[in-house]
Amino acid sequence: MRKLNLLLRLLFLTLLVVLNSCSDNPVNPVQTDTHYFELLQNYPNPFNESTTISFVISQTSFVNLKIFNSEGNEITTLVNQSRNAGFYSVKVNGAGLSGGTYFYTLNILTDSATYYFKKQMVLIK
Q: N or C: which end of the chain has fewer CB within 10 A?
């Protein structure tokens, strides 16, 4: 059931991005902003071997997605490049990591603003 809810949410977010890009009257899920950005919770969480981190951007932006350990040390950079509007998923392999709590951050730089998101994930070994 949880997987179905996640798939329905992702479908909805993808539809919002498509509607935003092809309409004179864009759908704005955030009333104060003309663009939509979201970092989704990784799935599965907690995870053992691998997990997937997904995000949505509604306009071409420079995207930086990183993982940090619980002490704030950077573990890896997953994305560090310009991306077109859309829904993106990145698979994370936890094979080289020890069990524990990790944080992942998404920085989005547009022409007019910078957006920052942070979420927590748990690796079980």
A: N
Contact present, 104 and 122 (Cβ < 8 Å): no
Question: Going by C-beta distance under 8 Å and a sequence separation of 6 or more, which residues neighbour residue 27?
Answer: 16, 19, 20
Domain that holds residue 11: 2-123
The predicted model scores a pTM of 0.73
Mean per-residue pLDDT of the chain: 82
Q: Is the pLDDT of residue 123 over 70?
A: yes
Question: Beta-carbon neighbour count of residue 104 at 10 Å?
Answer: 24
Report the candidate in 35, 29, 111, 121 with the shortest Cα–Cα distance to residue 75: 121
Torsion angles phi and psi, residue 20, rounded to 5: -65, -35
Rounded to an integer, what distance in angstroms lies between the CA atom of residue 70 and that of residue 74?
10
CATH number at residue 40: 2.60.40.2550
Q: How many domains does the chain have?
A: 1
**What is the Cα–Cα distance from 93 to 123, expressed in whole angstroms?**
10
